[in-house]
Specification:
275 residues, alpha/beta, Protocatechuate 4,5-dioxygenase, Chain B, six-stranded mixed beta sheet, 12 strands, EC 1.13.11.-, dioxygenase activity, oxidoreductase
Length: 275
């Protein structure tokens, strides 16, 4: 067991201290097998925390009508991408699931009906990140889907209903990218820490709003002007941020990490929120 994790507590019991919550800019699936500044940043952000009872990920790559949570004993590893080296397709992250926690999530959320899913598994928005954090794959990992037909505020408020899970040792991770426009990506500089002027300015705006805890300004992309339209042509990678921010309480502080833009139009900027 990784010595960075301490004071293991039995599954889903109330704890004295709430778990942190993370938003992770996951970027390319290749980050799942590479030792780079981003994957090292993910590892650093879970060093020293108590061992989670489970990990719940809201990934940009599971879009549904309605809200589902994976409820199988052994979720499969999903390779939901193409055109990458065979090595990436060979990855199997065999973490267990937790039907028990899935049922608890279903009960915890009262505003909507959360459906138990036995088909999905762990897509690359989840395993590419979590396999670096918890390489032994012993901790249960679940995914909560994103109802793509609902607005940002809906996801933010839904996250607030999940906040009690932090006190039960569940590490909740939003996995997407604040700025994500593949059509404008400068492929010649995909590995370079460079951003278009509008992307850099918007990234700074995001961080200012987040540090001021003025989250309502992020509910409507139109409020972000032309840069917002360029940065978020579709909201799939943006909505996971709403879950992380919705879990923040008044005592929580924000730590920024992996604060870089790649290829002009992808932001790897990530957050750790913790009291």
């Amino acid at each position: 067991m990784n010595q960075d994790f301490k004071n293991y507590v039995s599954q889903f019991q109330e704890r004295e201290k709430a778990m942190p919550t993370l938003f992770v800019g996951h970027g390319s699936p290749m980050n799942g097998i590479q030792d780079n500044e981003f994957s090292r940043g993910w590892v650093d952000m879970v060093k020293g925390i108590d061992l989670p009872s489970a990990v719940l990920v809201i990934s940009a790559h599971w879009l549904t009508r309605g809200t589902l949570v994976t409820a199988m004993e052994n979720p499969k590893t999903i390779h939901d991408f193409g055109g990458f080296p065979d090595e990436l397709f060979q990855v199997q992250y065999a973490a267990p699931g937790s039907p028990e926690l899935a049922k608890e999530i279903k009960q915890e959320v009262e505003s909507i009906q959360v459906h138990l899913d036995h088909e999905w598994g762990l897509d690359h928005g989840t395993w590419s990140v979590v396999r670096h954090m918890f390489p032994e794959a012993k901790i249960p990992v679940l995914q909560l889907s994103i109802d793509y037909f609902k607005p940002a505020e809906y996801h933010y408020k839904l996250a607030q209903e999940l906040a009690k899970l932090r006190k039960k040792g569940v590490l909740i991770i939003g996995s997407g990218n604040m700025i994500h426009n593949l059509r404008m990506l400068d492929w010649q500089n995909i590995d370079q820490n460079v951003g278009y002027d509008w992307a850099n300015e918007l990234n700074d705006t995001f961080l200012k709003i987040i540090e001021q805890k003025d989250h309502t300004k992020l509910f409507n992309i139109q409020n972000l002007g032309e840069a917002g339209k360029l940065a978020i042509p579709t909201p799939d990678h943006y909505y996971p941020l709403m879950y992380t921010l919705g879990l923040q309480n008044n005592k929580d502080e924000v730590e920024i990490f992996n604060n870089h833009l790649l290829g002009g139009s992808i932001s790897m900027t990530s957050l750790r929120i913790e009291s």
